[in-house]
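Following up on my earlier thread - several people asked me to post the actual chain instead of describing it. Fair enough. Here it is, all 169 residues.
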Amino acid sequence: MSDLAPASTAAVQRVTERLSALGHPHAPTMLSDAARTAQQAADTLGVALGQIAKSIIFRRKSDERAVLVVTSGDLRVDEKKVQAIVCAEGGKLGRADADFVKAKTGFSIGGVSPLAHAEEPVTLIDERLFRFDVVWAAAGHPHAVFPLTPDQLQRYTGAPVADVTQAPA
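Reply from S.P.:
Thanks for posting it. Predicted structure:
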C-alpha cells in the first residue's frame, strides 16, 4: 500500500466532503493502478477479495430509480433477491448501462462510491460484508478507495442489510 496518494478529482472530492461531514477518520486515497474490478483492488491493497465493497447499480424499471447493492467482491449479486426486496409486486429490476450509472450516481463504472451520489439511490448492503472487520470501497474514481467497517457503511448509508448474493459455488 505504499503507492497510496491523496485523492483529487471532482467526484472524489464529493466523496471526501461526505466522509468528512460524517466524521469518517480516513479520506480517500489514490492507488497507482486502477481498481476497476474487485480483484484489481484487492491485489493492489493486499487484502482478501471479499474485503472489497463493490457497488453494483441496477435500474428499477417502475420509476427509473438507481438501486445500489454494496456487496463483497468475492460474491455475485442475486438479481432476483434484490428485485424481491426493492420492487413492488410484479415490478422489475434491469441492468444499468454506463450512461444511466453516470447520470444517477455522478460516478463512472469502476469508481462508484457507496455514498455521495448525485441522486440518492435505493441502497442494500450485503450481509456477507460483515465477515470482515474492514472493507474497502471505491471513492468516485477507478483509482480512489477508502477503508471503513461494515457497521460504518450501514450507518453512513442508512441502508438495510440483506441477503442479496448467490450461494457460493
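Strands lie at 5-6, 29-30, 52-60, 65-72, 93-95, 122-126, 135-138, 144-148, 161-162. That should answer part of your original question.
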